[in-house]
Write a structure and sequence with these properties.
elongated; 3-stranded antiparallel beta sheet; two-stranded antiparallel ribbon
């Protein structure tokens, strides 16, 4: 589910919940050529993970099922035939070749030429009796205009001359998307329809169907697109991430939902952080924007980091564990990781690369790393420090974080040395990096006695062989 679809579902959910209504999941699969195996399971999984729990749907039931359009096929044709009887729709027998010819010669985008709109009744009956293939088209008014109200864009008027006689029932007996939706929305008692503004041009066709049947129209809420930048819509076809991609990239579902809610909606103040329950309380249709909204992944990353900070250490480790395992550090002390990584983690995928040196360090690092102006160290001084401190570390009776801390702090004090001057060479020797999560003490505790001492000896050998 791409971010635009997720936002539409979220706003649908919030429109319903903010007004004490029900959020309905309907699977619209009348276009069988576009059917993808596993897509429905993905919808269930995404909605559940995003916290958008539907009140009615194929998996939970409800009073207005079935909730899969292909399981409702028997109901659409009678409605279309009713419109034919009332003179509001007609059978069209034009061949594919004729329709393609019209398309090929359609210089001005005028569409179907209404060839079958006024066929004599006898001719229609003859063709039906002969088994001729047909579709059912809606008779659009040829004059005047159609006006409708949209909750975001206000009053919109379309000239009827711009509306083509849309197909209601296709040659394979399946309803078109537009027709099935109108029938389903009415028979399921749908009161509010939330969708992308690309459907604004279709809305007059929907409304003309409602009028033809004498049904009450729903409230329409059309949303502006989610943009990658000022010129391009966010799109999976262009490699932009969908919801599951963002989860796989290490974002928390709660942070994604919180951020997506603000991409096109404003609470009317500067507040940025909302739980789902708080969104239900704060949401109003009036806060929806008329302008396209840009999806800023930098802002999402910042918001995700703020969510990560609020996790308990136990929750943090539960999310971080797969990435620690991937780095080969799953066996190391998780409590230390929670302490040193949680304040620095923006997305969980960062963890693997950040801690990779603990599982396998680059031992060909340059001795220049031992030079640090702030700690006032150079390779020669670091060599002498390591030569002196390694035997003392080897003699430590306990290799714990507390024991390492007490020994190193006391050693620095006893030798009149700044803590940083002592800890810099120890950290470089164990990591081969100038920037690490945690310092020398945490790294030594995570590595354990044997590996930490092996790396310290290797560092000393490098410095001895300068």
């Amino acid at each position: 589910m791409h971010v635009g679809n997720l936002r539409t579902a979220l706003y649908e959910y919030l429109v319903a919940k903010s007004q004490g209504g029900k959020f309905i999941l309907r699977i619209e699969d009348t276009d069988q050529e576009r059917k993808v195996d596993g897509a429905v399971d993905l919808i269930y999984r995404t909605l559940e993970r995003a916290g958008l729990l539907h009140d009615e749907g194929p998996d939970v039931g409800g009073d207005f099922g079935p909730y899969v359009q292909s399981e409702r096929l028997g109901m659409y044709l009678p409605y279309a035939e009713q419109l034919v009887k009332e003179g509001k729709a007609y059978y069209c027998f034009c061949s594919k070749e004729r329709l393609q010819s019209l398309k090929d010669n359609d210089e001005f985008g005028t569409g179907y030429d209404r060839h079958c709109r006024d066929l004599p009744k006898e001719e229609v009956e003859r063709l039906l009796a002969s088994g001729a293939e047909y579709v059912i088209r809606q008779k659009m008014p040829l004059e005047g205009s159609t006006t409708f109200e949209d909750a975001v864009f206000g009053t919109i008027t379309v000239e009827n001359s711009e509306l083509q006689d849309q197909i209601l029932i296709k040659a394979d007996g399946f309803p078109t998307y537009n027709f099935a939706n109108v029938i389903d929305d009415h028979t399921m008692n749908i009161t509010h329809v939330v969708r992308g503004c690309e459907y604004l041009s279709s809305t007059p066709k929907y409304n003309l169907l409602y009028e033809a049947f004498g049904w009450e129209k729903p409230v329409y809420i059309h949303l502006t697109p989610v943009m990658k930048d000022a010129t391009r819509k966010l799109s999976k076809r262009h490699g932009d991430p969908g919801f599951e991609d963002l989860i796989a990239q290490g974002y928390l579902a709660e942070a994604i939902i919180n951020y997506v809610a603000l991409v096109g909606w404003s609470p009317g103040n500067d507040r940025e952080f909302f739980t789902m329950d708080e969104l239900k309380e704060a949401f109003s249709i009036e806060g929806l924007s008329k302008s396209p909204a840009i999806f800023d992944e930098t802002k999402l990353r910042w918001m995700n980091a703020e969510y990560i900070r609020k996790l308990s250490p136990e929750e943090y480790i539960r999310h971080a564990e797969p990435y620690l395992e991937a780095a080969g550090c799953g066996h190391m002390d998780k409590s230390i990781f929670a302490r040193i990584l949680q304040p620095r983690t923006e997305v969980f995928t960062d963890i693997t690369e950040t801690v990779a040196f603990l599982a396998k360090m680059d031992e060909d690092y340059s001795v220049d790393l031992y030079t640090n102006k702030k700690s006032k160290t150079n390779p020669e001084l670091c060599r002498d420090i390591l030569a002196a401190v390694i035997p003392e570390l080897e003699a430590l009776p306990e290799w714990t974080e507390t024991a390492l801390h007490d020994f190193l702090m006391n050693y620095a004090a006893e030798h009149g040395m700044k803590n940083g001057t002592l800890l810099w060479p120890v950290r470089i020797a164990m990591s081969g990096k100038t920037v690490t999560p945690g310092g020398a003490i945490e790294i030594a505790a995570l590595l354990g006695r044997e590996e930490a001492l092996r790396r310290l000896h290797h560092g000393l050998d490098k410095l001895n062989n300068m």
